[in-house]
Amino acid sequence: MKTGPGGERIAFLLLGVLLFSLACGLGQAPGSAAAPTPTPTPTVIPGGAPEATEPPVDDRCKGLSGELEVQILAGPAAAVGLEPFAVGKVPFSVVSDAPPYVVQGGGSVTYYDMLEAEWGTYTVDLDLTLGVTGECSGAPGAEVLALTIEVSGDQMVEVRAKSFQGDYPWSGSHTLTLSFPLQEGAAAEGEGWAFVLHLNQ
After folding, report:
1. Residue 24 pLDDT > 80, yes or no?
2. What confidence score (pLDDT) does residue 12 get?
3. How many Cα atoms occupy the beta-carbon half-sphere of 164 within 13 Å?
4. 36, 61, 181, 194: most buried, per Cβ within 10 A?
5. How would you list the strands of the sheet with 193-199, edge to edge?
6. What are the beta bridge partners of residue 197?
7. From CA 127, how far away is CA 132, in angstroms rounded?
8. pLDDT of 139-191, one tens digit each?
9. How many angstroms separate the first and last alpha carbons of the chain?
10. What angle do CA 170, 175, 176 make, to 5 degrees?
11. Domain map of the chain by residue range?
């Protein structure tokens, strides 16, 4: 079959397109996917979000307040079977805004009881004043309340019987140096006295 000059050019052009398509197909393995499009690397902007830091630890001494539950032996009362202890509560608080945290407080404890028997009466009347001074200090979680407690007061024992009447006054003072871990219910005790720590929440 004969073709003119125009037909030869068209046939040559079609042959070139066919060879080019065949070459592109051979350059890629059968069944292989097209190369993935590269993912751009995210840019880190200076001055972004700050690094996470540990939250500050609460200073438990700052603004601390509470009370001491007090038990003090009323000696003559126990001798005749009366309630042996004078019981009361003494409030305290931190009065400084920065270390060392100064603690101050005070209160009173009173006691009155009477034994009535066939022979007469036996009365114990006790009035005590307690002053609290000291410091709260220590590493977070291991704080200590170091207190000095001044106890002073008066006591009167009265004995009234048919054939005998007697009054036995007493007055005096005593100093106690105590240390409490800063936790609810911490206690200190000795001969004739006991203190239990209560913290305000």
Report:
1. no
2. 44
3. 8
4. 61
5. 165-181, 144-161, 120-137, 101-117, 85-94, 65-73, 193-199, 187-190
6. 68
7. 17
8. 999 999 999 999 999 999 999 999 899 999 999 999 999 999 999 999 999 99
9. 109
10. 125
11. 65-199
Token pair belonging to 9: 């050019």
Query: 4-8, 12-16, 53-57, 154-158: which has the minimum mean pLDDT?
Result: 12-16
Top-level class of domain 65-199? mainly beta
Q: Which amino acid is at 120?
A: G
What is the phi-psi region of residue 75: left when phi exceeds 0, alpha when psi lies from -120 to 50, beta otherwise?
A: alpha
